[in-house]
Amino acid sequence: MTTTSKQTRTFDLGRYKINRLGYGAMQLTGPGVFGDAPDRAKAKKVLQEAVAAGVNFIDTADAYGPHTNESLIAEALHPYKKDLVIATKGGFSRPGPGQWVPNGTPGFIRENIEGSLKRLKVDTIDLWQLHRFDSNVPVEETLGPVVDAVKAGKIRHVGLSEVDVAQIGQAEKIVPIVSVQNLYNLGNRKWDNVVDYTAQRGLAFIPWYPLASGPESMAGKISSIAARHNATTAQVALAWLLKRSPNILLIPGTSSVGHLHENMQAADIVLTDEEFAELSK
């Protein structure tokens, strides 16, 4: 596992300079990521506060709601600030709360892209990400409509989610890839090799579920380091990720303005090499 002593606050994602602490909008939906946000006015306020606090990267998906999350973002933030990058995803059917079914059929992917353009009120999607490879559909077929959308100027950059190194290579034979979004946090480092691979290649790595701090056995270790920095456990978990690799972009999600600002303050916490090593054991 590699790390860096120098901590940068931004990352160049394709043509965009991204503040590494962004915002994931998934929690601004109903239970099971299904249906609209229970308090739409409060949800819009969280999005507006995020942008006011310096967030210029917001992650959403066609499947969040489904559809309601993208519409909420447009309602809260459109017309968008010039440097605001909105990343969305496609490739999941949502039959009900908590249910996620990969669907990589070309017709469905094309429908996802066109729907996202309309709901986000944009002519071009800044970053479109494939939720999952569908084991029932060759990825060449799945990404066909994505290639068409890139050529048509409807998608600027393309990313992947929950992929290994081989799958990244497979997709790159079809369309240029700029980012990978996998489950990764202080307590779950299954994708260490993908973090290092993407860093070497200059691709962004976007951990989902970034606030998890690991098993109870780590609690004492984390709390002592948090006390040293006058920080919370969640802030330390985010600070560890920022130090882990300079290509990591964070998208912690919350439906609370207070929690949003707490997460944003994690960018000011720089762990020492010794603290990072202690947490990484």
TrEMBL record:
<dbReference type="Pfam" id="PF00248">
    <property type="entry name" value="Aldo_ket_red"/>
</dbReference>
<dbReference type="InterPro" id="IPR050791">
    <property type="entry name" value="Aldo-Keto_reductase"/>
</dbReference>
<dbReference type="GO" id="GO:0016491">
    <property type="term" value="F:oxidoreductase activity"/>
</dbReference>
<protein>
    <submittedName>
        <fullName>Aldo/keto reductase</fullName>
    </submittedName>
</protein>
<feature type="domain" description="NADP-dependent oxidoreductase">
    <location>
        <begin position="20"/>
        <end position="280"/>
    </location>
</feature>
<dbReference type="InterPro" id="IPR020471">
    <property type="entry name" value="AKR"/>
</dbReference>
<dbReference type="InterPro" id="IPR036812">
    <property type="entry name" value="NAD(P)_OxRdtase_dom_sf"/>
</dbReference>
<dbReference type="InterPro" id="IPR023210">
    <property type="entry name" value="NADP_OxRdtase_dom"/>
</dbReference>
<dbReference type="GO" id="GO:0005737">
    <property type="term" value="C:cytoplasm"/>
</dbReference>
<keyword id="KW-0560">Oxidoreductase</keyword>
